[in-house]
């Protein structure tokens, strides 16, 4: 079983890799769109085949496909953060020889882990900073993607709409339905917030355990 310090240090390292993955993926969309645009003006069978001979992909490559990927990033990032918090709970339980699991606490997700760690762990969780609030808000936005396919109900999702309104890298686009639009900087900022939170937690591990 990994120590709490090892759990947090490993997560910090993984976040750096996730950020690089997102940055590379975003660059790839730009490069792919440039390649597609060039294919429209060149008599190149290989390039035409690459894009299935379609001449209507500009909006897909510029907007639709990157949006699908960013929404996938968001779901994955919130999921790995929750898994990290749960793993930290398991490590604390083992290291301190506790006879109660975080699964026995009420609630779910990162709030349940927070409740367990706040009550039973000697580590002080840095939950009063902006990073934790960013992560919590991301969880709310993730729920729109995971449970509503990125569609926002103007009556049921008032809390999420307020989060979108206050974040320059999120947008509610109004068509027949209201769609969530995510800028790449939102994902990168979320990774940075998770990394900053984890770095503070790593310092607490050094002080305490």
Q: What does the model show?
A:
With 209 residues, the chain is mainly α. The chain has helices at residues 4-39, 45-50, 58-95, 109-120, 130-148, 158-165, 184-208; strands spanning 151-152, 170-174, 178-182. α3 (58-95) crosses α5, α3 packs parallel to α7 and α5 (130-148) crosses α7. The chain is built from seven helices and three strands, in the order αααααβαββα. Strands 1-3-2 form a three-stranded antiparallel beta sheet. The protein has one domain. β2 and β3 (178-182) form a beta hairpin.
Number of domains: 1
Radius of gyration, whole Å: 21 Å
Mean pLDDT: 94
Helical segment count: 7
In the predicted model, the low-confidence regions spanning at least 5 consecutive residues are none
The strand order across the widest sheet is 1-3-2
First-residue to last-residue Cα separation: 15 Å
Total E-strand runs:
3
Proportion of helical residues = 55-70%
Largest sheet: 3 strands, antiparallel
Main attributes?
mainly alpha; 209 residues; elongated
Brief characterization of the structure:
With 209 residues, the chain is mainly alpha-helical.
């Amino acid at each position: 079983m990994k120590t709490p310090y090892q759990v947090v240090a490993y997560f910090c390292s993984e976040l750096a890799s996730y950020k690089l993955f997102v940055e590379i993926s975003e660059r790839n969309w730009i490069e792919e769109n440039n390649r597609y645009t060039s294919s429209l003006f060149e008599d190149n069978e290989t390039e035409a085949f690459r894009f299935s001979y379609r001449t209507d992909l500009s909006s897909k490559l510029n907007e639709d496909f990157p949006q699908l990927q960013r929404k996938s990033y968001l779901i994955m990032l919130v999921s790995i953060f929750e898994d990290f918090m749960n793993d930290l709970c398991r490590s604390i339980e083992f290291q301190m020889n506790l006879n109660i699991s975080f699964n026995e606490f009420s609630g779910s997700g990162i709030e349940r882990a927070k409740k367990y760690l706040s009550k039973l762990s000697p580590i002080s969780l840095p939950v009063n900073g902006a990073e934790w609030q960013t992560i919590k808000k991301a969880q709310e936005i993730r729920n729109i993607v995971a449970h509503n396919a990125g569609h926002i109900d103007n009556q049921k999702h008032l809390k999420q709409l307020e989060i979108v309104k206050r974040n320059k890298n999120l947008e509610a686009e109004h068509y027949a339905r209201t769609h969530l639009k995510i800028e790449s900087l939102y994902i990168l900022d979320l990774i940075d917030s998770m990394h900053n939170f984890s770095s503070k937690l790593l310092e607490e591990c050094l002080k305490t355990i």
